[in-house]
Structure formats: C-alpha cells, structure tokens
Amino acid sequence: MKKLRFLTVIAVVTGLLAMHSCSEEFLEITPNGALDAQVLATYEGVDALLIGAYSMIDGLAEGAGGWESASSGWVFGSIRGMVANKGTDSGDQPDINPLQTFTETSTNPYLNTKWQATYEGVSRANGVILTAAVALENGTISQAEYDSFIAQARVLRGVYHFWVWKLFADQNTGMYIPYVDETTDVKLVTNDVDVRSMIIADLEAGTTLPLDMGQIGRFNKTVSQVFLAKAQMQMYKDWSTADALLSEVIASGVQPAGGTIGLMPTYGDIFDAAQRNAVESVYTVQYSVNDNSGAWNAGRGEVLNFPYKSGASPGGCCGFFNPTQDFVNSFNTSGGLPLIDLAAQTYSYNTVKVTNDQGIDINDPYTEFAGELDPRLDWSAGRRGIPYWDWGNHTGQDWIRDQTYSGPYSPKKQVYKLSQEGTLTEVGNWTSGYTANGYRMIRYADVLLLKAECEAMSSTGDLGFGEVNQIRARAANPSGFVMEDDGVTPAANYVINEYPTPFANTAEAMHAIKFERKLELGQEGHRYYDLQRWYGSNIATELQRIMDYESTMEWANLLYPGASIGSEDVNFPVPQRQIDVSNNVLIQNR
Amino acid sequence: MRRTKLWKSGVLSLFLLGFALSMSYAQQRTVTGTVTSADEGALPGVNIVIQGTTQGAVTGADGNYTIQVPGNDAVLVFSFIGYTTQAVPVGAQSTLDVVLSPDVTSLDEIVVTAYATQKKKDLTGAVGVIASDELTQMPQGNITQQMQGRVAGVNVTQDARPGQSAKVRIRGFASFGNNNPLYVVDGVPTTDVSTLNPQDIESMSVLKDAGAASIYGSRASNGVIVVTTKKGTSSGIQVNFNMYAGMQDPGKGPSTVVNAQEFADLQWLVYANDGISEVHPIYGDSNGSPTLPYWNGDTDWWNEVTQTAPIQNYDLSLSGGNDNSKFYASLGYFDQEGVVITNWFRRFSARFNSEFKIKDRVTLGQNLNIVHRSDRGTDSNDTENGAAMAAYTTQPVIPVYWTYDPFPGLSHTFVDGDWGSTGLAPRLGNKDNWVADQTRDADDVWQNLRVLGSVFADVKIIEGLNFRSTFGGDIGFTYLTDWAGKTYEKSENRATSTYREQGEFGGAWTWTNTLTFARQLGDHNILAVAGYEAAKTGMGRGVNATGAGYFSEAFSYRTVATAANLLGGSSWYNTPRSLVSQFVRADYNFRDRYYLSGTVRRDGSSVFGAESRYGVFPSVNAGWRISEESFMAGADFISDLKIRGGYGTMGSQINVSTSNQFFLYGGNPSRSFYDLNGTSNSSLPGFRPTRIGNADAKWETSINTNIGFDAVLLDRKFELIFDWYTKQSIDLLFQPELPGTAGRATAPDVNVGEMYNSGIDLQLIYRQIWGDFSLEANLTLTTYNNEIKAIADGYDYFDSGGSRIGALNRNLVGEAIGSFWGYEVQGLFQESDLTWDAVEEVWVPNDGVAVQDGAEPGFFRYTDLDGDGEITPDDRMVIGNPNPDFTYGLNLVLGYKGFDLTAFFYGVQGAEINNHNRWWIDFWPSFQNTKSTDLLNNSWTPSRTDATTPKASNKSNFSTNTVSNSYYIEDGSYFRLKNLQIGYTFDRAVLGNAFANARIYVQGVNLFTITNYTGQDPELRSGSDTFFGVDRGNLPVPKQFLIGVNLGF
User: Fold this and answer.
1) Least CB-packed of A154, A417, A502, B3 within 10 Å?
2) CA torsion sign, B285 to B286 to B289 to B290?
3) Do B467 and A361 touch (CB under 8 A)?
C-alpha cells in the first residue's frame, strides 16, 4: 500500500514535468489571418503592396483619414479658397468653422487627420520599396520589374509629400514638413530642413515610367510629368522646367492605360460619373462602389457634399460644400467676357449680384436671374430653378439644410445622375452619396491652364492666350449648356466668348489666367493652392477682398463672425499632436 | 470616534459584570446534560460557564457535562468556536440539554479561496464574500449586476438594459486597458460570467489583495472572483422552486426638454438674439409670431420610446445525495422585456453538478452549465442612437404617425399611416423617428448558446495529501440577424434595405492539477498546495454576410441569399493565447494565533516574445489573532480580533494583443484595395503594413500592500472588517501613438505606464435579536484614490472617448484616470466686458478681459489660467473627476416571526458627471434637434444677465458649443433605495406540512434616489476605463415592482 502511494506521487511528478517540457511549443502561437514580410517578397506580393500604396491616392482608407483628408480637396482647396462654404448647419463638423474663418489653431483635428492619412500613403510607398529590394535580392523579381515598382512607389511618395508640403511648408524656405523615405527613422526625423529637392527627385523618378502602364489607375510618365510640373511651379516657381514638361504632356501625353488625352467637347460631360475616364482625364482617382469595401473605396471624401432633400435630390445627405456668392458672381459675363479688367488687373464681377432665392419659401414665386452668365456656372453650382443633372430642377430652400447659415447654393460637379443610382453609387448604405464619380485629380483643362501660366510667367509663346481661349471655346459649345426640360432651351442667359485680343503682357495674361482657373476649375479643390502660388504671403489681400463681399450676405453673420485673415494664412500650422508625439523633435512653422 | 464608543461599551460591560457578581449567592446543586448540534451530533469540548462567575465545565467526548450551580437563578452560558453562544436559565431543572446552532458570524464561514477552502477567520489576505441570498435579492439577469454594494472594495457600474453585464472593478484601476477581474467558476478561470444563473450560485469570494489573489499570477492584478455553484447535500432529496414576476416602470423621462410651442418660441428667441429675420419653412415669417403647423404632433418622445415592461423569473432545482454521491440539477428561465420598446432579453439555463466517491479514496465529479440567451436591441445605450437620446433630441413637433390627408413632404408624399419624421419639412433636424426605426428592426435577434463545465478527479494519496485534476472547458456559439429597412420618412433616408447574418463560435479550456497537503500537527496547522495549470483561450472563428435590396420586406423572406445584391462578406479567425503555469501556496498557523502564508506563481504566455515570456508573482502574508493573547483577556467586548498584512505582486496580460510581438502585413477592401482597372465596381487586392511588432513586451505588474483587521465585538453583535491597501501598477501596457510619419499600422503595446491606487475597504455588520424580532445590518464602504504616475516617454497625457466636440476625458500624469478636461467657465460675458467694434464687426474685450475667440455678451467666458491675456489651449485644465470619493451599500434585514423585511441602499459620493446631454439641448446649433426649457426660459438675455445658461444663438464657436468646458460638469453623488422586500414565511403546519418551507414576498426596486444630478440617472453605464462618467443619453434604471414565491419540498 505504501508502495502504491509512492508510485502515485512519482507518476504525478513525472506527469507535471512532462507537461512542462512541451510547454515551450505550446506557447508558440503565430497570428491567424495575416502575412509577414517574407511571404510578400514576390512579384505578386510587391505589386499588392503597391496597390495598397495607390489606394491612398483618394486621401483616405478605413483607419486612415476620412472626409477630412479627401484628396479632392473640398475643405483645404475649395472652402479655404472661398469658392465654397461649409454648408449644412453651424453645429455640424464644427472643426471646419475655424478653417473657413482663417482662425484655426494647431489642434484642429482636420489638420492632424490630413497629416496622418497622407503619411500613411508615404509609409505604404516605403513598404513597397523595402520589399521590392528583398524580392530583387531573392531573385523573385527581375531588374525591370524592380525598376517599375520603385519608380511608381517613388512618384507616389513624392505626390503624398507634395500634398503635406502645400499645406504646412513655408513657401520660401521649403521647411516644416518631415521627408520620410524607406531609410528614415521616424522617431528622429525633423522638419527643419528644405525638403523640396527630395520631393522633386521622387517625382522625377516617375517620369522614367512608360507612357502605357496597362492599367488606368497607375501612374505613367504623363501623370508623373504633370505632378512634377505642378511641384516645380508651386515650390520653385520654375516656369521653364514646368513649361517643358507640360509641352511634352500636351504633345504626346496619354492616359495611364494608353488612352488619348484632350479636351472633352462639352463642359458638363466632364463631371458625368460615367465619363470619369474619358478624354479629359489625365489622372482620375478610381473610385469603386459595391466592391465589398463598405464604401471605403467610393467617393467617401465627398459623401457629405450633396443637397439635403432626401429622396428627391441626389445623395440624401448632408448639405455641405455650398458655393459662395462671390464664386457664383464670378460667372457674370458682359459681351461673353468676365467682369474683370485685364489692363488694370481689377475685378468688377461682384457689382452684379446673381440673384438667388435666399429666404424665399419654395411655394412662393421666384424670379430667376436674367443677366448674362458663363454657362459653366450651372455645372459648378446648383441653384433654384436650374435643372440639376437629371434630378429635375433644383427647387431651392428645401434642398438646403439651413439657408440662414449656408446660403442658397448646392455643389454639383461630383454629383451623380439619378439614372446612375445603384450602379455608380453604393447600395445599402445610410446614404447614396458614396459614388464612383472618381475625382479628376488631373484633367486636361488644368494642364492647359498650367501651361498658359508658365508661358505668361516666363513671357514665352502667346502668354497662354491660345490655351485660355481653347478652354473658353469648349465652354462656349452650346450643346454643353444646361438645358431646360425641353432639351433645347438654355436654362439661363448664357453668353460666353473667347478673349478677342492677345494678352499684352504677363500681368494682363495672369489676370485672365487666374480668373479662368476659378471659372473652369472651381469647386475642384485647386483654388487655395492657386492663391498660395500666386500671392504667397499676400494671400490675405485677395481672400479679404472676397471675405468683405461675402460678409455682406444674409447668411454671413452666422458663418463668418470673427474671421481674421493674415499673411500666416498662406498655410496651416503643423498639427500640435504631431509635435507632441514627436517629443518636440518636430517644430511649429509659425 | 468609533474607538471611543467601543471603549465606552466595554466599560459598560464591565460594570454590568460587576453588578451580576454582587447579586450572586450560594445555594449549590448539580445540573447535567448533553450538548449537541443538528449537523454534528454530540459536541465535545463545549465551554460552559455560570454567567457572572468564573466557574465552568467542559463537555466530554460524548457531549455530556456536569456542573454545580448556585441556584435556580443561575444562567449557563454555552460557548464553542463555530457555534452561537447560548445563555440558558437553569430554573428548577437538573437536566439541561442544549442544541447549539452554527455561528452566524461570517468569520466562521467556509470560504473558497484560491485552489483551497479556508475558514474566514484563518484568512490573512483581503477576501470579501457574497452569499447567494444576497445575490438573488436583486431581480436582475446577471450576477455581475447583483454584486453592487455587497462587498467592500468592489465598484459595480450598472447598465440599465436587460441582460447586460455590469462593469466590475476591484480596488480601482490597475491598467489603462481592460480592468475586468478574473472569474474562477468551480475551479475554471473565465472572463465571462454573464451566463450564470444567480440561483445556481452557492457563494462568491472576492480575492482583493495580492495575498489572496496573486496565486492567479498573470491574471490576478484586477482581482479574482471565485464562484462556487451549488452542490447536493447528503441529507436526502430537496426540491426548490423560486419565482418572481413583476413590472418595470421607465419613469417620466427628461423633464427639461421643450414642447412644440416652446420649441417655436425658442427659434424666435434665437432670431431675436442673432438679429436674423426670415420666413421659417414651418413656423412662418420671423417678424410675426410663430404658427405651429396643423400636423404638429407635440410628441413626448420619451413616452413613445418606452413602455411599462414585464419581468419574470422561474427556477426549479433538485438536489440530494448520500454519503457517496451528491447531485444538484436546476432549470431556470428568465424573461425581461426592456422598458425601451422592442427590447427584450431571455435566458434558459440548465445545470447539473454531481460528485461520486469511489472506495473512500477517489472522488470524481463534474459541473455542467448549458445556457441559451437571446435578445433584441441591446446595442443602444449611451450612444447617439440610443432611446434616451431619441427623447433628448427628436423635435416635439414631429408626429409619430402621419394621420392626415396626403402631404407633399420633403422626402416623400406622406399619407395616412406613414411614419412621421424629419422628411416632412426642412429644419426638423437629423434625428430619426426612433419608434419607426425600432419597429422596422424589431425582428432582429441575437442568440447565444454557451456550454461551460468541468470534470475533476480527486485522489487521496495519504491522509491529508490529495491530488486533484480538473479539466474545464467553455464553448459558445452566437448567431445574429440584423435588418436595416429602407426608409422614406427622414431627411437622410436609407434607399435600400440590408440584411446581415453573422455566426461565430469561441472556446477555451483549462487543465489544472494540484497536490494539496492539509494537516493539523499539534499546534501547527498546515495547508500547502502545489499546482500546474495549462490553458488556451480565445479560440474561435466567425463569418458574416450582408445582402441589399429586398423584393419583399416580409420577415420570412429575409435571408442574405434572397437579396438583390450580395453586399459583402467577411470572416475572421481568432489568434488564441496559451498560458502555462506552476504555482505553490503554503499557509501555516500556530494555535490559530500566528499566521504566515506565502504564494508564488510562474506564468508563461504565448502573447509575449520568447525573451520576456515568463513572469513570477510572489506574495507573503502574516496574521496575528491578538484576541487570543493573555494581555487582551480583560477586553471582554472583543470576541475576536485579528490583524493581518501582506505584500505581493500580481500580473495582467489581457490588455495585450495576441499579435503584439509580430510585424504583420495584410489587406482588406476597405483599407488597402484599389480599383486599378477603373471598373467602378471592383477593386484589386492591395496590402499594407498592419502591425508593428514588439517582442519585448512583458507582463503588467501590480505591487500590492494590504493591512487590515477583522474584529468581532460586543457579544458577537458587531463585526468589523477593515482593510487599507496600496496598489502600484507598473509596466502598464500602452500603445503610444506613433508619429504620423510612421503610417497607420497598429502600434505595439509597450510597458511604459504606471498607476497608483490606494484606499480602504470597510465592512460593518451588526446583528441583534430581541425575542421574535431580529435585525441584521451590513454596511460596506469602498474607496479608491487613483493617480496616473506615468504614461510613456514624452507623453504626459492621452485623450479618451469621442464626442461631437472631441475627447472629453483626459488621462494625465498626476491626475486620476478618466479626468474631465477643458476650459473652466468663469461665467458669461456681460455687455460691460466687451465693446462692439462696428467696423470690424466684432466684440472687443475691455481692459482686464482676456481675448477669446467668439466672445460675445451671453457666451461663455473662460478662465485665463496662465494669465497671458488670451484664452488659448494652455488654459485648459482638469474640470472634473468621475471617480467617486467613496461608494457604500447598506443592507438591512429585519425579521419578526414569519415576516422578513430587507432594504438595500446604495450610494455613490463625490463622483462627477459630464452631462453631455446638455451639449445637445442647451445649444441651438448643436444640430437642429429639440432643446431644453433652460435654453428658452433661463438663458442669458440682456435683461437676464445672471443666467448660467448661455444666450440662445445659432452661433457655433469656441465661446459657445465647440469645446469641452466646465459648464457640463455636475455632481453625480446619489443615494438610492435599490431594493425593498417584504416577505412572509409560512408555518409548515399551517400548510399541512406540504412544504419544507414556503415564503412569499413583494418587492420594489429602485424606489427612490436622492441626487442633485439634473440628468435622468446619475448611475451611468460606462464604456472603457479611460472614458467614463459621461452621460450621453444614458438609459435610467427602471423602477420595478415584483411579487415572488420561494417553495421547498
């Protein structure tokens, strides 16, 4: 009996030891449903990482930004450029309020979100570069494949840096954003150096790519050249380098999948969701809907920017991004030309107010504005009585969330057609405003006007006269006018002509080009950056001119109280959060 | 104060003793008898003393005694450890048989502790005990909710929704992440006890300090709650039936929101204040008076979204056994409708526990619990979409139903019977008709089947040495359906119906082996346990799919397969974690007087890299029963006094991801896919870095000191249990935010944080019997002081919790966890503070007034904390603390003959609440939703300058509603009658001996609350531990009225 007890103890102890000896193996558990770096070091793996880097070109992904960081630039490009106001009501997305009154602080969450989402793109591009090197070393990709991966990753990295540069860098010193490549220690990287040359070098890498990349969503030589030209203009005011690049784009550029580029024959069709990859598109961000992404690959950045009459107007939410009166008045014409004085470089368009339905009930009579207008207005702003794509007439107050706060206009360029609902919009979500209407990040008219600007600024060619008139001629194509229901009667009194006489000098040419960009590219996210390029620290003068007028509108006393524009408003403060997180390695730009 | 009273009582006792002595006189005679107890039979060693003298006797082995008494007036006092002392007058009797009953003093209870059972009086660690009758007092479906106020040191935060788990925190917070305690159910560790049927619980022991809990090592730092379920007894078959049923009353709802007319009046006030005139699309020209539309519903939305709801519970149990086998079987059914419409919870549970003794040496047993739960609508408390928020935000003018002729609304032409909502007209806000939403989705069901159980074998190797092996497992299956019907009535409509189905399962197992040695060797009492444990938790998989577009909206047609489009599908495959542990505990005492105990555990976990995988967690405790010492002999008022103290460490690993040590890549459509081919409806797979690894992460550790005493006083009428503790938590796992330049891959947890908690736990029990009348009062008091000592290098704070105006809670070094952060409101700007600049059209501060964005008479004026003449982010400060000064529970049980009355009070003192509901209703531009009567009647106007509510204005800026400030902070202290129960136990004979016992009762729950809080309920549901105390439409606990029956056969 004693023996038995003894044996039991021995057995138990042995058992416990045996259990312990296999515990090391028992404690090795690797994650399910994930990949490690080695698995990805193949052609398919690197390409998938590259697709991941491309997927940030809309400025956002789940877990990395949202409408705050949309690359379509509705907040930072358009609202900040005063072609639109926030819209909706005053308590909605209140962080936009200080951005549109130029009173933002470094803690504004929109700034931090934009910063984080954009550097996520940089980080993904660096992941491609690192993994491609491993794949090349392992012999799983060829040198040519490696070169293509690197060139695409670098131009993406250059573009993403360029975005943050425009927002936060000092225009003269080129400092205040960190440049991050695949070798950077992000804990040590500073922002007190001029990073322009590094951004330029990355963008130049993209110009070694072939013209035809086979897929419309990739960057090719042409796309890279336009981005490089834009960066040369914005960062270095190097008009001649940009001119040469843009000349080559105009002469021989193609879409990434090899398609021709040029002007769309009619203006409105540019913004038709179905035409997103048509001839006008040099690079369109490829939105996709109903692709099992929960609308994260759709036009998520623009989802708020639809009229507010659910069921009867597109989208169904949320009444943001309403054009300003100053923007609408810009479309006044006299003899088919804008109300600006080229010789004196002054503006008189605001002397004629395009009347609107502010404060007028939808059931009360309303007389539409009868003055002469540039037809592009009614593709750029929705206003009462004018057909709104195939949704019928914009009926006024009931399409607006709160007229007393946001004025009477609605956005239009990104809106989809009624006939496209369900095919080019996400189904089964809280709104139909997730569209496949990809943002025309670079369109041909933009290229032409940049070319015109280069000519004007470097006093070459016809100072951009030909390009400006090319664009005005397209706008004047009557089959591109917004028509009443009958399909033949123009919806308003559209009168537009080309400039009759060549521009006399750089100043005159630039006055015309600046205004043409406002008319042609309004609400497309470019305006603030254009002003930044043209006016630098004098930006306040031009913005104040618009603010002074806009402040006289009925809705302005809720919208713009406390607005204060100064020379510092040429950019934004570096997000305080990033300075904090860097342990003050990063420094503030002002 | 208390000490003085005790000494006074002692002096009084001595005086009475002397008085008794002086009355004695001699007339000796002999009395004999037997002392027995119901359970044990004859009791040897019972002390018998003649009251007022030192003369006495002791019972022999057969329980017999003989004693000389002075006369008929003598009173014999029978005392024996573990039994109630009895004083019996001798009278004329010469034979006096006495039956002693087991002592009700809680110190003599058997307590289930870590891997052992002990008498409570032998404990040296801090252990709180909850008896099953205390648990089942509260008619709630979840034992976590029933623990509130029952044990000192435990804070329980309720969630008013049926079936929901409460948040249980033991002694403050030991981590920035999950601070849930570990539960050990019949020896099997688990994190979820929400499925247990309260009626099946025999006892719960709360192991609070390192001495008691650190043997659970890496899972102990949040405290451990040991749950023991009922076993059969060897005294024959028992059948018990318990039921209760009643109604729940949702209450009146928020008293502070406007009606339809008031809302229109408020709009007019806003027009006047802002200098706006327009034709309002509903109320007409602002230059006239507002006219209400003919379709004005003047809806009281609280009434619409709530209902009086039934609650019922039935339990039937059968138990029994003999010397060799015991069993307990039960069936339970709990059914609670929500006080919110369409909300319900149901639970069916079955339990079977059994135990068989084989040849005197081997015991085999099992515990099995099978539970099916189902509910609808539990995801809607404390969110913008919750029922309470519907009442706080939906405009009263909106009718629930359209009951008029067809009307061309904004979104749709409304016909009789349609839902009314924001689509009727402009400016009705964005708040859905909550009744419509819930009615559409009323068929959604979540259901869960859980099987939890264990088997064990216990082998007696030699006398006092046992080997026990327990294997426990836990498997759960969940299936849910989620319909989101298309809408027509709103300003923001959903164009297509969608339907989601989701199924998942999860599992865990634990295998525990212990050797236990327990022997009394003369004066030496030894208990030692050595063990080995292996566990694997968090196994599981899940899948879901969503379809969109339905030809028919009928319930029977809803499947993912019948949708027009397959919207998406997803699945997941959990990465489990494994744990291997060895542990030893040893408890020694000498003559029940000097105690020493120690534990040590070594844990290895799969979530850490090979270098930092193992952690060792020791503890040492000592105790001294001071009342046994001769120098205490004079202090008669002290029946028992033990002081005890301990020190040790405990660990935690639940806050670290199972993937923490790995660098990972991955891809999914929403994060990294891109439509490279320009198809518009498909995207190509792309990958991204998903996680940055940290192989160096290790255990979180809490270093714990505990000093306490247990005292039984004044003839055992009082019991006092006191503990003072400190808990220093180091190496806290925290994910420091990576710089933006690192991208958005998940940052790893690193061990950087440090936190400090200290506090006292106090429990005071008073028992008294006066003839037929008995009273038991049990007071618990819980305090904790929390301070964050470190977060991470370069971080002195992190924000938590979102709102429409950003994070409201800031966790910063030197402050308590979850502190409220923002600007301090000094008052409202008066016209004398500012001057209107007509050129710039802005208000300019006068001398001595700091520059502040948006300054305007009637708006908030903030304190210029740094005195730099400008209100900047540097002027923000801690504006409130959601942690209570103390919480307390008082349970009173009164008995008179067959009647019993129980009253349970619970209170929280000093916790502040961030009443975020005010953001919605006290500011006109916080969405076009309904507003408060304060904003209409008590807000600032040029003639009402002493107001605290700012001017009603549509301006949204820094000085109105865009930043967190002290305006929202309120005192959240409250005192609540949680439970009042009156029962009557029938005399067996009256019911013809048909029942072993029979009791009926009536009960009221949450009958009254005393508080200054202006929101609906100061008892807030609470999400995370770094974000709490914020009322964002918290659902108030309902009042309940019940009747119940307890029957035993």
Assistant:
1) B3
2) positive
3) no
